[in-house]
TrEMBL record, chain A:
Protein name: N-acetylglucosaminyl transferase component-domain-containing protein
PANTHER family: PHOSPHATIDYLINOSITOL N-ACETYLGLUCOSAMINYLTRANSFERASE SUBUNIT Q, PHOSPHATIDYLINOSITOL N-ACETYLGLUCOSAMINYLTRANSFERASE SUBUNIT Q-RELATED
Keyword Transmembrane helix: yes
Residues spanning the membrane: 370-388, 436-460
Keyword check for Transmembrane: yes
Gene Ontology MF: a single term: transferase activity
UniProtKB/TrEMBL annotation, chain B:
Short name of any one Pfam family annotated for the protein: PIG-H
Pathway field: Glycolipid biosynthesis; glycosylphosphatidylinositol-anchor biosynthesis
Name of the protein this chain belongs to: Phosphatidylinositol N-acetylglucosaminyltransferase subunit H conserved domain-containing protein
Chain ranges of the Phosphatidylinositol N-acetylglucosaminyltransferase subunit H conserved domain: 93-163
Organism: Lentinula boryana
Superkingdom: Eukaryota
Length: 584, 199
């Protein structure tokens, strides 16, 4: 390690598809003492005569004022470039004569057309964030104004607009030399792709929006009780609310996309485009599936109601009653306390019977109509209605179980001569009087012998409650996934990863560099070319983790609430099982 | 442009200097630690044992009922076997572009062919520091070289260099000393160490 490895030289970003000799123009970024040059394009020698050559700087300034890229730096003529390709196969590096620097190293970059919506990005941005809050300076910012002598967000912005600037300048040049006045073609190159269809869509959405938004707002905000709005309680109303919000956002996004005609910032436009179409796809998907499912329900409501009736009778009414009778008569050889068991099973069988009667006489006759209505508004509240009796029985059972458990624990401590200190939240030794001990022991014996019965009935309803909660959770998860599935981003990642950038990386290509005879003699070859490796700036597609980042967040929340260990512990301790709270 | 191997004890480490970049490569083999000089390879190329698997597959396939669970399991096992053989780490490199930044690469595939390359680029605007740290890996304590980078929110993230191979300390020290001058020149907030000659 004798010599320093660091030899500073100017780096020149050269577009990969540019192979003409001529005058290079672009941006010259002076950072610290090293220069970093971005070449936007090349004006060929034969298209300009000496008269135009003087007018070139003025032309560049004029173009710069026309667009909104003033913050990218001053567009200027860099110098002359020559390609000595001849009959050389493969990539050839240009030879440049630049005023400011004698030593330079070339880095290739891809200069994409504006219509392809491809761009570089220095660092990943969340795909779900509102693209409208992204300004050109909110991406990677160097700490406290420090500028690097190499690639940075500033340079990446220049790389992104290079193609547009190049097209604009070449157009102006051709119009100048042809002496025919023509308006700048910036507008044409940056015209939105979906011009006509978007107009149609916009009018459709705005009309529907104006009719529906007011009633929806009113419905969603009806107060069911003092604390809860209607949209907290019913899933279908919540869906309506979400869709209304999304269509309002769609209108705003479309307005912004339309106004893009004057701007040249590819990356912002592309991100807005992606998020807009993602939302459009989600809404279309939701409407289609909802309509199909609703139609299915409406057409088959008779058959479905018969099937539902049988299933509910079988599994929710008669099965719990049979199970309760089984528990009453020495289940699996366990001798439960006869009177307590008779009391429990009698109560619960009656409860189930009452609810079964309610279902049978009031709801089931209406079931075809109810299913028809569900087909129209697609609600999930049915599950809660059908299992209400299980909820009530579970509430009673868990009450008794928890009290019995706590009483047992406390009397056990008394048995051992200890007491639970509530102030310090720990167990301390304690001297009990003899009558306290005697009474406590009698109670303990009572509870201990009644406990298996309480446990047996609690176990049955706890398991039923657990099953209900899990089914409810899976329905909610399904709904949440459908609401936010990033299908557009996924398909785009497959089709054209350049449009979804997630960072940069460098690849290396073998390039022939022309050397003059002096150097060739020094290197000992007669060829005038040597091959070296030159870096190319490539785009790294965004990873699947970033696309699905909302899902990972949702998953961690769900996993922490429905963790099997936590559920098991709640069951054992007799805590009331609740599904995940929807708004916290 | 010649590949140097500066360390006698660790010939799997090689350096390449060119005009536009410097490459520090660690290949996925090492000399036996007992000093006998035998080469211990962690990524195995195609060997004759691999030819037995298609033989076993073709023998067992017609013996099992079509569409049964056994066929599904056999095909899953075959796919898993192919996948593990084709994603072995061949070599990991650090490529330093003197003006732009540091790129960490991992090449995976079936030796000697490379199928997948994972590249992480850290530009100098994000790079904060380069550190050698100790970490616990199962029952072992390993040294690792880590690049500190700071995102937009001010949150510092770590990028481990050579994350799969985790070479031994002499290699890391060599890379650290070479990279020190790039990091200290480009990132003015880090103190620049005096350039010392090796003893």
């Amino acid at each position: 390690m004798s010599a320093s490895l660091y030899n500073p030289s100017a780096s020149v970003f050269w577009p990969l598809d540019c192979k003409e000799s001529g005058y290079a123009f672009g941006w010259c970024n002076n950072n610290q003492n090293v220069v970093c040059i971005v070449v936007a394009g090349v004006i060929q020698l034969h298209t300009v005569d000496s008269k135009l050559r003087e007018g070139l700087p003025k032309l560049l300034e004029h173009t710069q004022q026309h667009t909104d890229i003033a913050d990218l730096g001053e567009l200027q003529l860099i110098g002359k470039c020559t390609f000595y390709s001849g009959q050389r196969k493969g990539l050839v590096a240009p030879e440049l004569e630049i005023g400011q620097a004698t030593k330079y190293s070339i880095v290739f970059y891809h200069r994409h057309q504006a219509q392809t919506l491809r761009f570089y990005l220095m660092d990943t941005l969340g795909l779900e964030i509102d693209a409208f809050n992204v300004t050109s300076s909110s991406t990677v910012r160097p700490a406290s104004g420090q500028k690097s002598s190499g690639i940075s967000q500033h340079i990446v912005n220049q790389l992104n607009v290079a193609s547009i600037i190049n097209a604009a300048i070449l157009d102006s040049l051709s119009s100048m030399s042809n002496a025919t006045p023509s308006s700048t073609n910036l507008r044409r190159t940056t015209k939105s792709i979906t011009a006509r269809t978007s107009d149609l869509l916009e009018t459709a959405i705005s009309i529907s929006q104006s009719f529906i938004s007011m009633p929806i707002q009113v419905i969603c905000n009806i107060h069911v009780s003092a604390k809860y709005l209607l949209k907290d309680v019913s899933l279908s109303v919540q869906q309506m609310d979400v869709r209304a919000d999304q269509s309002a956002a769609l209108l705003r996004q479309m307005a912004a996309l339309q106004s893009r005609r004057e701007g040249v910032r590819i990356e912002i436009y592309s991100m807005k485009y992606t998020s807009f179409f993602n939302t459009v796809w989600l809404i279309l998907n939701d409407v289609t599936i909802g309509y199909a499912f609703g139609k299915f329900l409406c057409e088959n409501h008779e058959v479905l109601s018969g099937m539902l009736k049988d299933a509910v009778e079988n599994s929710l009414i008669s099965w719990p009653q049979r199970a309760l009778c089984w528990l009453d008569s020495w289940p699996a050889g366990l001798k439960l306390n006869t009177e307590l068991s008779r009391f429990y099973s009698g109560t619960f069988v009656d409860l189930v019977d009452i609810w079964g009667g309610v279902l049978r006489h009031t709801i089931f006759p209406q079931l075809p109509n109810i299913i028809y209505i569900f087909g129209l508004i697609s609600s999930f509240g049915a599950l809660i209605v059908l299992t209400l009796h299980i909820y009530v029985c579970y509430a009673i059972a868990v009450l008794a179980y928890e009290r019995a458990l706590w009483g047992l624990g406390s009397l056990w401590r008394l048995f051992r001569g200890k007491r639970f200190n509530v102030l310090r939240n720990r167990t301390d030794s304690w001297e009990y009087d003899i009558d306290q001990l005697l009474f406590g022991t009698i109670l303990f014996t009572l509870l201990a012998f009644l406990f298996p019965t309480v446990l047996a009935y609690y176990a049955l309803f706890a398991l039923l409650r657990l099953a209900t909660i899990l089914i409810q959770a899976s329905l909610e998860i399904q709904l949440a996934f459908m609401n936010h599935f990033p299908l557009f981003a996924l398909v785009l990642k497959l089709k054209d990863p350049w449009r979804l950038p997630g960072g940069l990386c460098f690849d290396f290509v073998r390039v022939s560099v022309h050397i003059n005879e002096h150097e060739a003699a020094g290197a000992g070859t007669d060829e005038h070319f040597i091959t070296t490796l030159i870096p190319i700036v490539e785009n790294q597609p965004v990873t699947l983790g970033r696309i699905f980042f909302q899902y990972t967040r949702l998953w961690t929340k769900l996993a922490s609430h429905y963790h099997p260990f936590r559920l098991f512990k709640s069951l054992l301790l007799g805590r009331f099982l609740v599904p995940i709270p929807r708004f916290d | 442009m010649q590949r140097l191997r500066p360390l006698q004890t660790n010939p799997e480490f090689s350096i390449l200097h060119t005009d536009s970049f410097h490459e520090y490569r660690v290949e996925n083999w090492h000399l036996a630690r007992d000093g006998s000089g035998t080469v211990v390879r962690h990524a195995s190329a195609w060997s004759w044992k691999y030819s037995l698997f298609p033989l076993m597959l073709s023998v067992s396939w017609p013996k099992v009922f079509a569409g049964s669970l056994a066929r599904v399991l056999i095909s899953l096992a075959a796919i898993f076997f192919v996948w593990t053989r084709c994603t072995q780490v061949i070599h990991e490199t650090i490529i330093v572009l003197p003006e732009h930044g540091i790129q960490l690469e991992t090449h995976k595939g079936l030796p000697p062919l490379t199928f997948f390359t994972n590249k992480r680029f850290v530009p100098y605007t994000i790079l904060r520091d380069l550190v050698i740290n100790e970490g616990i890996k199962r029952w072992d304590v390993r040294y690792y070289l880590v690049v500190l980078k700071e995102g937009t929110t001010g949150r510092v993230a770590l990028e481990v260099c050579f994350p799969n191979i985790l070479p031994h300390f002499p290699i890391l020290l060599q890379v650290y000393q070479d990279l020190r001058e790039f990091v200290s020149r480009q990132v003015p907030s880090t103190p620049s160490l005096p350039h010392t000659q090796p003893p």
